[in-house]
Design brief:
Chain A: Pfam families: BcrAD_BadFG. Chain A: Its cofactor is [4Fe-4S] cluster. Chain A: One of its GO terms (molecular function) is metal ion binding. The complex is a heterodimer of chains A (about 260) and B (about 375). Chain A is built from 8 helices and 10 strands. By secondary structure, chain A is α/β, with parallel strands linked by helices. Chain A folds into 2 domains: about 110 residues, 2-Layer Sandwich (Nucleotidyltransferase, domain 5); about 140 residues, ATPase, nucleotide binding domain (Nucleotidyltransferase, domain 5). In chain A, the strands form 2 sheets. Chain A has a 5-stranded mixed beta sheet. Chain A has a 5-stranded mixed beta sheet with strand order 8-7-6-9-10. In chain A, helix 3 runs parallel beside helix 5, helix 3 packs antiparallel against helix 6 and helix 6 packs across helix 7. Chain A is globular, with a radius of gyration of 18 Å. Chain B has a domain of about 130 residues: Rossmann fold. Chain B starts with a helix and ends with a helix. In chain B, about 50% of the residues are buried. Classes of the chains: A alpha/beta (about 260), B alpha/beta (about 375). At the A-B interface, helix 2 and strand 8 of A face helix 14 of B.
Amino acid sequence: MITAGVDIGSTSSKVVVLEEGEKILSKVIIPVGAGSSGPARAFEQSIREVNLSREDIKRVIATGYGRNTFTGADQQITEITCHARGVYELVPGVKTIIDIGGQDAKAIGIGKGGTVSNFIMNDKCAAGTGRFLEVMSRILEINIEDLADLAASAKNEISISNTCTVFAESEVISQLSTGTAREDVAAGIVQSVVGRVAGLVKRIGVQSEVVMTGGVCLNWMIIKVMEKELDVPVIASPMAQLTGALGAALLAFESAS
Amino acid sequence: MTQLKDLLSVLENVANNPAQVINKCLEEKRLMIGCAPEYCPEEIVYAAGMLPVGLWGGSTSIKNANLYFPAFACSLVQTTLELGMRGVYDRLAGIIVPAHCDHLKCFGQDWKVAVPQVRFIPLAHPINRKLEAAVEYLKSEYFRIKSVLEEIGGKPISDQALSEAIEIYNDHRKTLREFTTIARDYCTTITPSLRHNVIKSGYFMDKLEHTQLVNSLIRELKKAPPEEWQGKKVILTGIMAEPNEILDMFEDYGLAVAADDLAQESRQFRTDVPQGKDPLEGLARYWSCMEGCSLLYDPQKNRRFMLKTMAEESRADGVVACIMKFCEMEEFDYPIYKKTLEEAKIPLLYLELDLVTPSLEQVRTRIQSFAEMISRKR
């Protein structure tokens, strides 16, 4: 039986096609998300790559911010439940998940069998999210992928507000205009995101193993600083931003079986 | 069944279109007094022959009220002032504004300047409410309000009229208590939204008429056997569970309301006004008898135990904290009852609500995730 998970985030669309709930047939990421052509294109591409049609897929579950607008799905499940299921498959000992997505951050407590025991989401502000890192990278004139390396070379990390993206942007511009080194600002940006998200995680209780998902977990400095902040090892999900789609595909398999 | 549907339709229509009821009141030349959140002595208004009208803001954008309020004032006071400044409440003969929190204190002062056409009637409750001196003080506050209403109405308010009003209100409270208890056995018919509207409609109707309608509704409900509910049940706690779309989301994800601890709902009717020889003293003592609200001074913080007991007795699967954004009174209580509920292993959802935000998708994700969490719990 073939199932698929479609994770429609605010900044990207991810699809995982699964055979018998075990073998990944295809996985696709398209860097545009809810409200765009991204979800449909990602889904089309994922089934075309393995010469399948929609009829070949027994069940499709949509998740993420745009889950309710994807017409090709049989069911919608939130990204919280899907990330929990996905991470549990990849790291069975998981107790806490940190998911930093494009527009929000979530801390998820995991109970028996990969079920969600508790969760908390950030406020509406974009501080502590992938969007925050995007905005800050633009000001630093670097690609978001290079932020970790730049931050690692900091000598005198500065402090940046972690309560509001708009104010933080003003702070960063102000720091740069007074001659603060870009790497010190970059380290301050990383610390700002981690400080904000670690606060969320502490509110649900930090229990090892801690796994980070979402595109932001590809930033190794975020992982390193998060470990320091939480005082526990933090594992980057092996499937990073595809973890939610994997969870959705697994849940599709389980509900169809 | 038709009778049941008709009754629900009438009450829902009143809750969603209070202007119709208000216009009827105007035709009858009955004066109306606005009652700002959360606790006003409506019985005095009623005894004056006037209609107390509950003002609990509404879903609207802020264009005028930000002249007076900073962005971090709760949307309940912001939208009520906004509607007042737009002239929506111009037909009211006055508005009673309690000063339960800092935002309401500012709201009353702002109202005086921003909406001068609707008379501002201030009310300051005592904080140390268990003292006899507090009862005495609050009685003097109510006496002052009674005098203002006598001046507006042009006639005295007798003790007999006050006692009768208290009786009518206590009867109304008893009826709503019965309704909320019965409603949990009919979760398919009484959806979260309908349950809310049945209660909310009482803010715009004569309490005698509302009591009769709700009693008829209870009788109609009882004609059918209790309904089997496949979904989950939750307790709602906080100030209010609006905007309306929120409760529709509960229904979308198979969540029914087992009971509530909302200031707009059960906190208004779970305690009766003590009856006695002196009706104003009874009304003042009522403030001392109430329990379990973030606006009531309670050094023991008994709300945490009340919520735990409520969840256990109503066999709820979880508790949803409907936190009005920027309501520090509710935010102060939250960590206290969170700890108690966590120790009792009762799932708790923190839901930040705001009457002025048109997009509710993040709220939807929270509600759906909570529904999934309590449904999948192994």
